[in-house]
Design brief:
This protein has 249 residues and is an alpha+beta fold. The chain has four helices and 19 strands.
Length: 249
């Protein structure tokens, strides 16, 4: 098995599979593939172990179903593209190791990949679209690829060292890193501060990967340019009215 990461701002991952080799991803990640690749969708892959395991995987931010791509008709390739500007990182997961990955971070991996619930906490209706903050638990023995949004900044925390981070910037960290969601102290900070009232506290030892472009931040930045619902209908009505007025005049 070989792989290439192509592009810069919006990279794609091309995985070259030799006869009999496979790679798995959550359903819906495929961008394109060669004719030698066959697909099989099931709940049992990715450490699913049937519907119960699949529900645990989904609770961590994944999906009930996963798809396996296998080279059956000779050598082939399968390609996965990023959804937003970001970075694709290869990550070798060895037996006994654990990684916590943000809910949309797992792109694909070899069949030994296991996904489950790593962390889940509600942060209120206005945070992360009302879905709360979730992390996937990545274990097993496999080669995996992780998608992080924007640029990736890495810190190696020493024992007892604490890093306080806006939850959306948490991309991935080693399982030995202690993690908890904390509230910002001070009523003025909570009511009038422009920053989040929640911060993630990551305590070493261990490695932490932060992402510079959280999806909620991107959605908030774009929201003022999106016209929906009644505003869209009103805008269309005003335009039609102007045209009709011009014709009648």
């Amino acid at each position: 098995m070989d792989h290439r990461i192509l592009g810069t701002t919006m990279p794609v991952l091309e995985v070259v599979l030799y006869p009999g080799e496979s790679v798995v991803s959550v359903s819906g990640e495929l961008s394109w593939m060669s004719s030698a690749i066959e697909m099989q969708t099931s709940t049992r892959m990715g450490g699913g172990g049937g519907m119960f395991g699949a529900f645990k995987r989904a609770a961590g931010g994944g999906s009930l179903f996963m798809t396996e791509y296998t080279a059956r008709q000779g050598q082939g390739y399968v390609v996965f593209a990023t959804k937003v500007p970001g970075t694709i990182m290869p990550l070798q997961v060895n037996s006994g190791e654990t990684y916590m990955v943000h809910r949309h971070g797992f792109l694909c991996g070899t069949p030994g990949t296991e996904l489950g619930v790593g962390f889940q906490q509600s942060l209120g209706a206005g945070i992360f679209g009302g879905e709360g903050f979730r992390l996937q638990k990545l274990t097993g023995s496999a080669m995996t690829w992780i998608e992080l949004s924007g640029e990736v900044i890495t810190y190696d925390l020493q024992p007892g060292e604490v890093l306080r981070v806006h939850p959306g910037h948490v991309g991935m960290f080693e399982g030995r890193v202690s993690f908890e969601i904390t509230r910002v102290k001070g009523i003025r900070n909570m009511l009038f501060g422009a920053d989040s009232i929640f911060l993630a506290a990551l305590t070493g030892p261990g490695r932490v990967w932060l992402q510079s472009l959280p999806l909620p931040n991107l959605a908030h930045a774009l929201s003022q340019y999106i016209v929906v619902g009644e505003a869209k209908a009103a805008g269309a009505g005003a335009a039609i009215g102007a045209v009709l007025k011009g014709v009648s005049g």
